[in-house]
Amino acid sequence: MEVKILRSINVPTTNGETIEINLVEDNLYGKKTIRPIIENAKMKTNSDIEEEDSFYDFRPRNIWEIYKIFHQGDRIARSGNYLCGVYKKPEDPADFDYVECDTNHASSCEELARNIFRFYPNSVLEHLRERICNFLRYHDLGELGIGDRPDDGSCDRAEKFTDELSTFCDKIKYLPIESQEELIRDFIIFENALSPKIFLGEEHEDFTWSKDDLMAMQFAKLCDKADAPLHALLYELEGRPGDLMFKKKYFDGITAQDQRYIDEIGESSQSAVWIAHFLDHYNNYEFFPIFLAIIVEAVKEVRGEPFPWFVDFCIRHNICSEISLDLYCA
Fold it and tell me: How many CB atoms lie within 10 A of CB 314?
């Protein structure tokens, strides 16, 4: 059966190759769904050694190469925390005493996912769980060499996506081709987890991802975005709370998005503003109520009670019902 390609995305890599990502129409589920197909992915091996020895087993070397690449994330600081004054960013990353880095974040996201699977065993279909965890382990490799750009409205989203996709494809080149294709596909969906319409234009706005793709990558996105405010609450427990006023005083100021949340909730603490952002942007994702309940419990433990602005904020933004909010805040 001939597939209908609705859009192609070409991603150049340092191999000199171009990975082609085709978004094709797939009506397998009885409605207009989009499936990413990855073409031209090639596994990088040490070709010099292979030419000298045709019996060379490249697998141990490739495992070492991807291990090195993964731990480059140890030196990518999570930008929001130093912008809010949780710790200062030294000129030499080796000077960090403890700083949350991309590697910590990836591990934390995966741990959050696995614990939700344990406590809510009927939440996510079993065949999707390892796919989610595999992706979360590598989801921020696109920041290597680029850095963690804050999700505060300060950067162009399309440009950020293009830059990170290119780096992501390059950094996973030592993995088997099948693994590369799975991760690239999931990266595309993860970054646009509600709908593929950003790629396709208004004429195809009724298209969607498959049910499995929606469930898996919306869950992964919630793990990624909930980890930031949960970590901010951990820093409050440690006695080093972040505040957006630090960002205003020592950096280039705060964004309009930051200011809007500060004005609406009446405080500038890092945890509160980031939770308001999470509530506002991700409340229409599947599984959101689970993550909301976890965040509410964390706030109760750290602050002693829910935020005073919480219920009114949720009602204004049509987040859950008043009955469910009463249960959360009980």
Answer: 22
Instruction: Give the three-class secondary structure for 20.
Output: strand
Task: Locate all alpha helices (DSSP H) within the chain, ordered by sequence.
Answer: 47-52, 59-70, 79-83, 102-119, 126-138, 157-171, 177-190, 197-200, 211-237, 244-250, 256-265, 270-282, 288-303, 310-316, 322-328
Please give the pLDDT value at position 274: 96
- What confidence tens digit (pLDDT) does each residue in 143-197 have? 997 888 888 877 888 888 888 999 999 999 999 999 999 999 999 999 988 888 8
* Chain center to CA of 99: 19
Instruction: Return the number of other C-beta atoms located less than 10 Å from residue 210's C-beta.
Output: 16
Q: How far apart are CA 142 and CA 150, in angstroms?
A: 14
Under-50 pLDDT residues of the chain: 48-49, 51, 96
Q: What pTM was estimated for this model as a whole?
A: 0.89
41, 207 contact by CB (below 8 A): no
Instruction: Read off the amino acid at residue 113.
Output: A
The Cα 23–Cα 8 span in angstroms is: 6
| Pairing state between β 208-209 and 33-39 | parallel
Burial class from Cβ neighbours inside 10 Å (0-12, 13-18, 19+) for residue 263 reads exposed
